[in-house]
Design brief:
Elements (H helix, E strand, L loop, with lengths): L1 H7 L2 H13 L4 H9 L8 E5 L5 E5 L7 H11 L2 E6 L5 E7 L6 H4 L2 E5 L6 H15 L2 E5 L13 H17 L8 E6 L3 H12 L28 E5 L21 H4 L8 H4 L7 E4 L9 H9 L1
Parallel strand pairs: 5-6, 5-7, 7-8, 8-9
Antiparallel strand pairs: 1-2, 3-4, 4-6
Helix pairs in contact: 4-6, 7-8
């Protein structure tokens, strides 16, 4: 009987989350920072200033994997580097792979990548190179606050401010057409991606079939949340606490996602319905980090 009850109740897991929340001073942001964000330490790359004053990224020669510099060092060095200030005062590093052509940002798609929690921007460059070549698209990979060469500490609210600043920079400074921007979020990166797409969707108060509105939503610092062209979610999470909880509807009681629902972070299940652009969800059935039920559930919404 006891075994059966243990198999259908997550009281122990919820108690642990409760203790961790108390230890974090009842701050969900601090708790999420300690559980969800694991930036590589030390970062895989460094920024240097070239003789002409431009910033250049290079793999750290002290990295545990020297093959990175051997195989992908040239690709990383070819990236254009931007350092963008967010509304929360942090400086975010953006590594950009621009396609050839006079007006690449005006005529080609631009993919803005929010990477997984255990990567930094430079570690994504090998895959970004393939994406840029195969799709003939510009690819920009940014580091969250506290990751790579970005300043600050990784926190949920900072992640949201980071992507807002990065998209604004692409439109206002680089001249990107918002309709050609595709937001790409992997794992924890689905959180800031869904946040921006929902904010930009501008359809919180209307149904999917209603006519589009010309009104723009604004970020917290008064900038326009630009309506992007599309969203790609790779192994996305339903929410922060859903990762350590079984799917809803399985009859399991007292899950952390249920008990602490008001304290949950990156509530993607609330955001996806607000998208006003096409979205693609990709999730491996054998994913042992984020169950495939997350991707299936988000797609169903």
């Amino acid at each position: 009987w006891r075994g059966a009850m243990l198999g259908s109740c997550y009281c122990l897991e919820s108690s642990v989350v409760g203790c961790l929340l108390c230890h974090a001073g009842c701050s969900t942001d601090k708790l999420a920072s300690s559980l969800a964000f694991h930036p590589p330490s030390p970062p895989s790359y460094v920024l240097r200033t070239a003789p002409d004053g431009t910033r250049v990224a290079a793999f750290d020669p002290l990295s545990d994997d020297p093959r990175l510099a051997q195989d992908w060092g040239a690709s990383l060095r070819s990236c254009e580097v931007d350092e963008v200030t967010t509304r929360r005062g942090n400086t975010v590093c953006v590594l950009r792979m621009r396609r050839p052509g006079r007006d690449a940002y005006g005529t080609k798609a631009t993919i803005v990548v929010s990477h997984g929690n255990a990567l930094d921007a430079a570690l994504f460059i090998p895959f970004a190179t393939h994406i840029a070549t195969q799709l003939d698209a510009n690819v920009s990979v940014y580091d969250y606050s506290g990751y790579g060469a970005s300043s600050g500490r990784p926190r949920v609210e900072d992640c949201k401010a980071d992507i807002e600043a990065v998209v604004t920079h692409h439109v206002d400074v680089l001249g990107c057409d918002p309709g050609r921007i595709v937001l790409y979020g992997q794992s924890i990166g689905s959180g800031p991606t869904c946040h921006y797409a929902a904010l930009a969707g501008n359809n919180q108060s209307r149904s999917r079939d209603a006519a589009p509105s010309n009104r723009h939503n604004l970020t917290k610092d008064g900038k326009i949340a630009h309506k992007v062209g599309g969203v790609v979610l790779i192994s996305p999470i339903m929410s922060g606490l859903s990762v350590i909880s079984p799917p809803e509807g399985t009859g399991v009681m007292c899950t952390p996602a249920c008990v602490f629902k008001p304290c949950d972070v990156f509530k993607n299940f609330d955001e996806v319905a607000k998208f006003a652009c096409p979205a693609l969800v990709v999730h491996g059935r054998l994913d042992d980090q984020v169950p495939c039920s997350h991707g299936v559930g988000l797609h169903a919404l």
